UniProtKB/TrEMBL annotation:
Protein name: Alanine racemase
Domain D-serine dehydratase-like: 258-363
Species the sequence originates in: Streptomyces brasiliensis
Organism ancestry: Bacteria, Bacillati, Actinomycetota, Actinomycetes, Kitasatosporales
The keyword Chaperone is assigned to this record: no
Keywords: Lyase
PANTHER family xrefs: D-SERINE DEHYDRATASE, ZGC:162816-RELATED
Pfam families noted in UniProt: Ala_racemase_N, D-ser_dehydrat
Family, as annotated: Belongs to the DSD1 family.
GO MF, any single term: D-serine ammonia-lyase activity
UniProt cross-references to InterPro entries, sorted A to Z: Ala_racemase_N, D-amino_acid_metab_enzyme, D-ser_dehydrat-like_dom, D-ser_dehydrat-like_sf, PLP-binding_barrel
Length: 385
């Protein structure tokens, strides 16, 4: 895409805008913390799904990454990444793609939490004459999949995998940390995440099984962890963009949000106190993650093209291609004529980014041109599974 002399006032709306200056600042913050904690940072690329965004993580060089789809794994392998964790429970139909990546020299770790999965992975490994590195998913807070560290199946799974040369370690994710509303709650979630993963690893070792990897992480706990003794790696993904959910938890500030969606005012309904835009849930997603927080941000906060928030204006409703903006507490609507362009800051960066083909890249460290940030380039996203 030729972006010469284009600004956020030029492309057809709605579209995703990514502030590279803010992303770099967010990346540096967590990398510094991981270095202080003495663990490897394995960023989760599911938020950006972009090789160009990932190039910001390690000064352009491939680093260990986490993925949520095999399409991501395959695209990152094409981009030169050779150390990848596929952090979604494996099913047998996907193993041929896993084995194909392993044969290419990619160390692709897979995830499982049952004897059934361990058995078919071990059998596939023997048939391929190739170890398939596998991690046992451990449940630290009841959020999703995984086994409790004291579950009888943990050493049984470990023995099945080890017998085929596949046992790599354990992995856990403190998904409930997204509902830890204070810094103390987030520190406790991080401690519990660490303690649970380390307990599972020690149980396997007590059974005479090797554990190379002890993996933990979520964006809230990664920023709250104070001691990761016994952990080998830290995972997080949302932090590269951040969003209103993270800001509502105090993990970041609204000023740290790197992703926004540019929309255009297309109508007014003054009798209802509405401003209508061309950015509905197809542009923003239906995620209402801040609804459970102290401050409900609707579908997103509203800023001008210069990035400055418009006081009290919120995207409070959405249909497929229409967004509705209203003011808090019945405050007067701002004067925003038809054709006015705005930026909506999202609740959930992962969900909003997934609505777009890629990112129009801006740099807020540079001065706006006629009130709109210049577009430096366009970075495509990886799609599919």
């Amino acid at each position: 895409m030729n972006t010469t002399n284009l600004t956020l006032a030029d492309p057809d709306t709605p579209f995703a805008a990514l502030d590279v200056h803010k992303s770099l600042r967010n990346i540096e913050r967590l990398q510094t913390r991981a270095d202080q904690l003495g663990v490897t940072l394995r960023p989760h690329v599911k938020t950006s799904k972009s090789l160009d965004v990932a190039a910001l993580l390690h000064h352009g060089s491939p680093c260990p990454v986490t993925v949520s789809t095999l399409a991501e794994a395959e695209a990152f392998a094409e981009g030169g990444y050779t150390d990848i964790t596929y952090a979604v429970g494996i099913d047998p139909h996907k193993l041929p793609r896993v084995i194909a990546l392993l044969r290419r020299g990619v160390r692709l770790r897979i995830l499982l939490d049952s004897v059934e999965q361990a058995s078919f992975v071990a059998e596939a490994s023997r048939q391929a004459e190739l170890p398939i590195p596998a991690q046992i998913e451990i449940d630290c807070d009841g959020h999703r999949g995984g086994l409790k560290p004291d579950a009888p199946a943990v050493p049984e799974i470990g023995r099945i995998l080890h017998g085929a040369g596949c046992l790599d370690g354990v992995l856990t994710h403190a998904g409930e940390s997204y509902f830890a509303f204070t810094s103390d709650e987030q520190r406790l979630a991080a401690k519990n995440e660490r303690d649970t993963a380390v307990a599972a690893a020690e149980r396997l070792r007590a059974a005479g099984l090797p554990v190379a990897t002890v993996s933990v992480g979520s964006t809230p706990t990664a920023h709250a962890a104070e001691d990761l003794t016994g952990v080998t790696e830290l995972r997080a993904g949302n932090y590269v963009f951040f969003d209103l959910v993270m800001a509502g938890l105090g993990v970041c500030t609204v000023e740290d949000l790197a992703l926004s969606v540019v929309v255009t005012v297309i109508g007014h309904r003054p009798e209802y106190g509405w401003i209508i835009t061309d950015g509905g849930w197809m542009a923003m997603s239906r995620d209402r993650g801040t609804a459970a927080q102290a401050q409900d941000q609707g579908y997103g906060l509203v800023a001008g093209l210069d990035g400055h928030l418009i006081p009290d204006l919120v995207m409070t409703a959405a249909s497929q291609e229409h967004g509705t903006l209203t003011t808090r507490d019945g405050a007067p609507l701002p004067e925003l004529p038809v054709g006015t362009r705005l930026r909506i800051l999202p609740n959930h960066a992962c969900a909003t980014a997934a609505q777009h083909r890629g990112y129009h890249v801006i740099d807020s460290a540079q001065s706006p041109i006629d009130g709109a940030q210049a577009i430096r380039t366009f970075w495509p996203r990886i799609a599919g599974w």
